[in-house]
């Protein structure tokens, strides 16, 4: 897969196979994969006592979604570690709901890149209006290219709940189905604008052309990503068994037994 995406500021290259094989997903979580027609179901469950092996990596990953590593490095050099840490914490959400929602979006973006081979061109959480406010627009807009260079899109919606229900899943599916299943123009132009700011004009132009063409020439797949404190397998399997959407849908359930405590511990240690 060719790519115009470079690891500067708000966007990253798709990780290599080696990177993906040793990622926190594989160390921390076990995975079961099932295909239902053209759709795919991924169920992740925590490995017993493996949390300690990935906490540092996961903490760095979460940091990077709020503040670019390059900015953090400059602050460390100019201000020192204590002041830099204090500034980073100013970006982090403080409410349970905001933390839960942000974590879902972080993990969904990482999954899209590490497991599906897409790239998320902009880390949206870096441009939140307020630390506890949710951003409008598609949770995930990821891109890739087919062998001929044609742009492909992944439209994603993430949900993080102590208890995942069919109502929550249907809500996420409804968002994916809006706009004829295509990404919203606003979300794609949001990415294009920031790419323009960073000098990535070629990739920004491709995104803008996709918007102007109403995405007709661009294949679109869906990602329905959940994080929950109950086993999501039955709920997500039932959803996919009834899914009539012609677009390929990747449905993911990350099962964290102590969902609330896990999120509290993660953010309190950031």
Describe what this molecule looks like in 3D.
- The protein has one domain.
- With 270 residues, the protein is α/β, with parallel strands linked by helices.
- Helix content is 45%, strand content 18%.
- Helix 4 crosses helix 5 (81-89) and helix 6 (96-114) packs across helix 11.
- It has eleven helices and six strands.
- It is globular.
Question: What's a quick, concise take on this entry?
Answer:
The protein is of the alpha/beta class. The protein has helices at 17-21, 24-28, 51-66, 69-79, 81-89, 96-114, 166-177, 185-197, 201-212, 233-241, 259-268, and strands spanning 29-36, 39-46, 140-145, 151-161, 220-228, 249-255. The chain has one domain.
């Amino acid at each position: 897969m060719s790519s115009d995406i470079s690891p500067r500021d708000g966007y990253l290259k798709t990780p290599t196979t080696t990177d993906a094989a040793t990622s926190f997903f594989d160390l921390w979580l076990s995975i079961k994969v099932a295909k239902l027609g053209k759709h795919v179901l991924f169920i992740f469950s925590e490995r017993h006592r493996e949390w300690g092996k990935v906490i540092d990596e996961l903490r760095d990953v979460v940091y990077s979604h709020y503040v670019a590593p390059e900015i953090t490095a400059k602050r460390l050099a100019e201000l020192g570690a204590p002041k830099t840490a204090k500034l980073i914490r100013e970006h982090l959400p403080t409410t349970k709901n905001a933390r839960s929602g942000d974590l879902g979006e972080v993990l969904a973006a990482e999954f899209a890149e590490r497991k599906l081979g897409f790239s998320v061109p902009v880390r949206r959480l870096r441009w939140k209006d307020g630390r506890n406010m949710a951003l409008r627009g598609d949770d995930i807009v990821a891109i890739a290219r087919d062998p001929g260079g044609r742009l492909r899109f992944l439209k994603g919606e993430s949900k993080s709940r102590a208890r995942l229900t069919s109502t929550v899943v249907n809500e996420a599916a409804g968002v994916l189905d809006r706009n004829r299943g295509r990404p919203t123009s606003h979300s794609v132009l949001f990415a294009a604008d920031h790419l323009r700011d960073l000098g990535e004009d070629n990739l920004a132009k491709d995104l803008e052309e996709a918007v102007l063409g109403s995405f007709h020439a661009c294949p679109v797949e869906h990602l329905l990503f959940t994080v929950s404190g109950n086993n999501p397998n039955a709920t997500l399997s039932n959803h996919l068994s009834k899914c009539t959407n012609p677009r390929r849908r990747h449905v993911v359930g990350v099962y964290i037994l102590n969902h609330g405590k896990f999120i509290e511990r993660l953010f309190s240690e950031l």
